[in-house]
Structure formats: structure tokens, C-alpha cells
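Note to self: keep these together.
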Amino acid sequence: MKVFEEVESEVRSYCRSWPTVFTKAQGSRVYDEAGREYLDFFAGAGTLNYGHNHPQLKLKLLGYLVNDEIVHALDAHTAAKRDFLEAFRRTVLAPRGLDYKIQFTGPTGTNAVEAALKLARKYTGRETVVSFTNAFHGMSLGSLSVTGNSMKRGGAGVPLNHVFTMPYDNYLDGCTPDFLLFERMLTDNGSGLDKPAAVIVETVQGEGGLNEAGIGWLRGLADLCKRHEMLLIVDDIQMGCGRTGPFFSFEEAGIVPDIVCLSKSLSGYGLPMAVTLLRPDLDVWEPGEHNGTFRGFNPAFVTATAALDFWRGEGLREQTLAKGERVAEALEELAGEHDKDIAGRRGRGLAQGLVFTDPPLAGRVCAEAFQRGLLMETSGPDGEVAKLLPPLTITDTELDEGLAIVRESVAAVLDA
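Structure:
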């Protein structure tokens, strides 16, 4: 442990909550070098929707590497990229009637967001982007500008301009005015709001505290964007790839965003990969106008193609929704038993959490869970939410085991 303190930057964070050295992982289990086993209710912040080292994906990856097939290719044509593009169109886009071009950005979610913001401004010729309270979109400058967290924004060290922040659904003490105010500001020459290029939104704000936008609110936002010729960008980096049930988190609302950002579980194996999906008419890039060295990480294409097998049919979607209902029931029961300290449950699918009235309690619950062999973390502007993000492939037995540990951890903190 000493070398981490002596050599690694102070910016490290998750390791402070989990003071051990991990060595192996399989499915929903992680092991440290002492041989202790942990149940994973964090899943790489939503990067491991299909668990650790899934054998189906692992075999594809190992075969690719053993055969000396190409690993790095910038954006040159490769067989692995072709296979992914064909499989994504066949398995995800076509069944949903979606017509998107696929832009390979840099390897992380913030790269997908940066590309979306840049494209929206290029296409419309406008500068302003509307974002929402408690949003989180990444740590590079453009993504930070549309992020709400003051601590993360402060790390930029420069002004974060050309953004206008509006209240997210249920932001104002449990209610949010409809879009009359937003529309009035768009049409009033005295409002101070320049006509935006785009609006960027998460359907469930993962890092912002598992705040969930209602279906009606999302539909109203999509309609407003259409009427005022603003592009609608959905950041589906954490909530996409099945985290809330459907492959895309916006499917339930029946909306079709102009641009979609995907990353995290897209590769299926924890390998870095990100894409920006865009309407074909928005594809106004000049060749090389937006590029990056690691747009073509072919091992990620291989595992991403294999991961799409989970989406042939509706099996995983239904399983995730059923597991989500079990999680919701367990958390609602806990909240009811401790209503003085727990304000309630938030989230949907397998992205849910408990909201504590005193924010430090959430961190203490997560620390207790770690001591009992469960990995989970906090979210929200003050770290007030104890957040559950188990793999979608978790078994019912494992899910019950983890929920029991959550219950024990809550009791240890609140009944002490």
C-alpha cells in the first residue's frame, strides 16, 4: 500500500473508500490479494454491465490477441471495426428504427460529449448549450462546462462559458415548472439567453444523485427542442447499454435524440471505447476535423461485438427490469423503516440508491458495506446517496446477498 501513497497522485479517490489491493474478478465478484471476496455493487461505475471477465467476451478477446490481429489502427478500416458496425446496426439501431451515423471519438465518455458539443455548435453556428442542475458529463473542459458539480467545475481553473443551466425535473422541492419558462426565455429578446445550439440531458443523473426525469418531462423537452430548432443530446454514457432496462435509457419515453453519447459498458469488457451517434444530416465534419489517437482500439470492437449478443431479443431487458423491481422494493422498505434518516429511494432499473438526510451517513453506510464484503459508492452533490450499480448479469442469489449486506450496513450506522 505504501507505494500508492508515495507515488500516485492525491487525486485518487475510489481507493480511499476501498483500502485493499484487488487482484482478480469474475462475474459479480472481486478478490483482493489476501484472498478476500467482495460482491460488486459498483461495476466500474456502470462500465461492467455484463460483469467481470465474462467468459463469452473473454474467449473472443483472447482469440483475437493470440492470432496477432491488429490492435491499434487510428480510424483505418479493420475487420474488427466492420464487424462491430454491422452488428450494432443489425442488433441495436435497426430493431428500434433508429438512423444514426456512428462517430468513433476518443476512448472515454467525456470524448463522446466533447464531440457532441463541438458538432452541435458547428452544425447550428450557435455557441450556447443548455444543461441542467446536478448534471455530470465528464472532466474535460467542454464536458465540465455542462456539469453542475461546483467542486469538479472549480478544478477547471478557467471560466466555463457558453452554457446556460436550467432546473432538472423535480429540482425545485419536488416539482419543476413546465417548459413555459424555458420557452419564454427562448422567445423573449430581454431574457439574456442566446438561442442555443443544443440541450444536453441525462435521463437519470447517475453522478448527480440518481435523479430521474419523468417520461412527460423528457417528451416535453424533446418537443421544445424540435419547435425551437435546438439539437437534443442525450448523454447515455452511464445509463445506456441496458442499465435502466432497455438498451437506451430514453426508449421508454419514446423520444429520438438528435445525438447520443455512449461509452462505459459499450465495450462490454471494461475496455475503453466511446461513440457519438448522430443523425445523418448532422454529419458535417470535414475529414480529420475531430480526431484522436485511440479512436480505433480494436480489442474493444471485438468485445463490443460479442456483448451485442446480450441484445438479441428482450431477455436481458426483462431480467434487468425484474431485478430493478426487487431492488426498489428492498430500498423502499429500508427507507420506510428509517424515515428520519433516509429521505427515500431514487433511480430505476439497476441504478438505484438511498438518499440520506445527513449526507455523511451515505458514506458511512458504504464503508460498513465494504467491511462486510460489498463494494458500493456514493453520489449526489453532497455525497448524500448510497448508490447501487450491480452488474446486469448478477444472479438472484447474489442480488439478495448484496441487498442483505446493504440492510445490515444501514442498521449498523443508523442504529449505533
